Amino acid sequence: MMRLRGWRKTAYHILLWVIALIFFAPVLWIIMGAFKTTDGILAVPPQFIFTPTLDNFLDLLTRENTLRYLGNSVFMSSTSVGIAIIVSFLAAYAFSRFKPAGTDFMMFMLLSIRMVPAVATVIPVSLMYAALQWKDTYFGMIMFYAMFSIPFSVWILKGFVDGVSQRFDETALVNGGSRWHIIFRVILPQVAPGLVAAFIFNLIFVWNEFLFSLLLGGRDTTTIPVSFSTDLYSDGGVDWTFIASMATVYMIPPVLAIFFFQKYLLVGMTFGTVRGEV
Amino acid sequence: MQADLSQKRKNVVPQITPPSQLSRWLNDARFVPILLIAPVLIFFIVWNVIPTLWMIGLSFYKYQISIPDSLRMLGIENYADILRDRGMWEGLSRTFIWVFFGVGIQTLLGMFLGYLFWGSRDMPGRRLALTLLFVPMIVTPVAAGLFFRLIYEPTFGIINWATQSFFGQEILFLQNTQYAFWAVLVVDIWMWTPFMILITLAALASVPRAELEAAEIDRLSWFDRLRYIILPHGKFILMLGILLRTIDSFKTLDLVYLMAVPGSTTKLIAVLLREQAFEALDVGWSSALAILLLLTAIAFTSIYLYILNLNSKAKAQEVGT
């Protein structure tokens, strides 16, 4: 750890800011593009100073289907993650407290699901969905995304429930509380941070998910990531103003999430296996 | 007196209604765990176990959706075919190069930058700076691929504008088969170096303060400090981070798919699998490949959990001493 004083410290802080801005630069370039006209985006030399226009965002509003796709993204990600968190919390409690036979195996399998390349998981599911006619239905997509979020949620929440002392359960039992009372009134409030972290990060993953949506979804359930690839071209060229403005709008929720919930970032990005703050 | 009290109590305590059948059942110690786990188990069986078993079955068949009545028992022919397939081996070696350079550079760069960011607690606007720094990993990979297509664009991309004004030469990053692989890899490095910075910060935070102060008093050099104090404490978290990154890097698809270039220089194993399954519609063959990747994933998971276990054991020992 460096202890610096005076101008050295200022220089050090400026250096860190510069590093952060370098990583942000490509994103910033796109955000700037969202406020340019098509000619402005394609101008040579590139325009760093320009008169911003809101036309691209107005175009998004009036564009056919874009709002519906955005609605799909919001609706499917929030419901599927909501379902996943509820069932995962119950299971995490059981795995942590009752340790039924096969707990370790189950946790192992859940983690393995996450490690498999997405395209390998989607092959059998797409066959099953085709047979059951679940493709391109909200039910099918939401349930699939719930399954996609469960492994991570169980892992993260089991870690949090393990962190709550068994004494709480015992005390409540001795005082005549039922198991359900313990789960929802005693344990739940104490693992609230875990629930928040699991919710936020699953939401980001589902929000950004592309492949499943492309292969299992369809006309009715198109999400924004898929629309990036399908609405890419217009009038014979790549529609850069659409890409830039849509990408800008679409990244607002995740960026706000990591700004306000920065302390959960580590737990969220490592499956709940590494705890701590940065 | 005693009798009096118990008499009183009897009057005060309301009559307890016997619990209903349902609530007795809900609270039965034998059923509670089952009830709690059931929903996850149902999800797991319906969306994982059944499809996977189905896939294992299909991997022994010749089955091409586009050709009617193509279902034919093959035995292990699909697997043998994959092992013989030259394109597959090329894809696999390309994936290893991708993982090796990608994760390697991310780790080194991430460790270096993470070390720099250590001790930035009182930096003005730290939360905003860290948010900007971590944005690449939460940007939609599809959108990131598209951003960079614009940035790499030969005629109006900003990088080519720079190379043209400084070196008077334009570089066809994504069109040239020699550069394309590395150009896409740079995007992956941009996206995931922040993750390794995050992991490094966590690893550094796990080093006890007292030992660092002792090292300072002993005037240990920075290298010795790294070797004797920081690494022994932080190595498990670092290893977990590197392993997670390796697995995810092995799975890369979205980014490469969206930046897809002519030729096959960026066809990683997952990309090849997608083509076989959803363009060639060769379900039997791609099921077999998916099973092989599944087994790889299980192997990765075992290693991950092994390291995680070492970590908790080391922690327990620390607490014990």
Number of strands of chain A: 2
Strand arrangement, major sheet of chain A: 1-2
Radius of gyration of chain B: 29 Å
State the end-to-end distance of chain A.
14 Å
- Taken in chain order, the helices and strands of chain A follow as HHHHHHHHHHHHEEHH
| Averaged pLDDT of chain A | 88
Annotation, overall tally of beta strands of chain B: 2
Q: What is the helical fraction of chain A, as a range of percent?
A: over 70%
Q: List the uncertain runs of chain B.
A: none
| Percentage of residues in helical conformation of chain B | over 70%
The number of helices of chain B is 14
- Distance between the terminal alpha carbons of chain B, to the nearest Å? 57 Å
Give a written overview of the molecule.
The complex is a heterodimer of chains A (about 280) and B (about 325). Chain A is mainly α. Chain A contains 14 helices and two strands, in the order H-H-H-H-H-H-H-H-H-H-H-H-E-E-H-H. Chain A has helices at about 5-35, 40, 55-60, 65-95, 105-115, 120-130, 140-160, 165-175, 180-190, 190-210, 210-215, 225-230, 240-260, 265-270, and strands spanning about 235, 235-240. In chain A, helix 4 runs antiparallel to helix 10 and helix 5 packs across helix 7. The longest helix of chain A is centred in the first third of the chain and has 32 residues, at about 65-95. The mean pLDDT of chain A is about 90. Chain B has about 325 residues and is mostly helical. Chain B has 14 helices and two strands. Chain B has helices at about 1-10, 20-25, 30-60, 75-85, 85-115, 125-140, 140-150, 160-165, 175-205, 210-215, 220-250, 255-260, 270-280, 285-320, and strands spanning about 60, 70-75. Chain B has a two-stranded antiparallel sheet. The mean pLDDT of chain B is about 85.
